[in-house]
Amino acid sequence: MTDKITVGGVSVDTRHWIGGERVASTDTFTDVSPIDGSTIGEISRGTATEAAAAVTAAKAAFPAWAATSRTERARILHAIADGVEKRLEELAIVETTDNGALLRSHRRGVMPRVAHNFRFFADWLLKLDHEDFETRGHTNHVSWDPAGPCVLITPWNAPLMLATWKVAPALAAGNTVVLKPAEWSPLTASLLADIAAEAGLPAGVLNVVQGYGSEIGDALTSHPDVRRISFTGSVPTARRITESAAANLTPLSLELGGKSPLLVFADADLDLAVDLAVEQYDNAGQVCLAATRFLVEESVAEEFTRRFVERASGLKQGDPRDEATDIGPTIHPRQLEKIDGFVQRAVAAGARAVIGGHREGSQYYAPTLLTGVAQDSEIVQEEVFGPVLTLQTFPTEEEAVRLANDTRFGLAATVATGDPERAERVTAQLVAGTVWVNCFFIRDLRAPFGGARQSGVGREGGNWSFDFYCDVKNTVTAP
Ligand code: NAD
Q: What's this model's pTM, rounded to 2 decimal places?
């Protein structure tokens, strides 16, 4: 195994980053590019041994980092953001090669947001207020104490964005971190380790380990010295992590899947509604927040569908490095297989593919819209995580809300309506962590982010992140 590989002209270390040093495992796993199925390289395959070493390093580095002043912690986080900005092009091409999402999105949207994650939590840390209350002459002093080593486990659909959404607040709060990226997209986390070291983050404060969830992931989440586990990924994995965290009662933050609706009322600006609808194919539909269930008022359903099909048919599918491409590949042939399975079973059960409904070669899935789907069918109830959308119609507002809420998920919902009173009524009834009205994917890091029902446990963002990553303490002092 070579320690370094070159990806899109960028050198990437394939080993773990533990205690400020590169550490290799004897075993490896193969990282494959979704663009064409080619092998990118062999990556260190961590086990319980590397998990223990990383947690030990994080534990050893914790006291000094926790005692580092807020201004110094914030300064280093800004320096990491500078490093991300300096290497933005490199991060973008490596991420695109590794996970197949559009290069233009990585350049213009995702990587700037990665830098922003660090800047935002650095600045928020400096604004975080200690609270004081008085009780019969006694002072209650509420402080945000760092919790300790945190294990952060992330998925492949937006690897560095989702990792830094956790790493930045965890470090800002004074914690040390063991980050395990997904085995289908391990590379940018390794680059982040380099950037953080160059920015002056002390050894052991950020550790990056690679490998399979069932191996090193399990060992990390069951480790007794871990004080927080923040996980983004699927519901079945969240169940397993919850079980392994139970032994030590380690607090968990879970950001999970969704089956979010887009409600289109007859009073909506239909052009806007179609814009919002077409956006759901972003990242080949591999977006947790994607509004994959279109619920359209009966009177405008035909017109909405006509305009949607016209727009969607113009989307260009292909190499994500090409600026003109709108839809890239799916992450892995296994994911493609899964997506096609969902679609074929839906069609067999009576659904009609208005567009798509088939693979495009070995890595791509045609953007698909299915109609004629029943509310209790698998395709309406289960997360597909591919470019597969369904369309159902509704006769009344009441029925729209009923359909929207009738899944086990509750991550997000989008409402297209021209009537502000309706917007207020409907959003109040929707079960979702985030609701967008006449817009989609607008995120403010000060606002809470998370899911209702099986879409998650807890909220992150602004103070909510510090609530999770800190042991909030009340010190009562006599007069
Ligand atoms: P996944 O659950 O298969 O894997 C996520 C991570 O968990 C990977 O790093 C994996 O190695 C690790 N893992 C697997 N088994 C483990 C175990 N037993 N112990 C510890 N770690 C383990 O999810 P995925 O397929 O990578 O990602 C897609 C899912 O993520 C979708 O359901 C999507 O909706 C969800 N997601 C949610 C959000 C959100 O913010 N709510 C954002 C992005 C993706």
A: 0.97
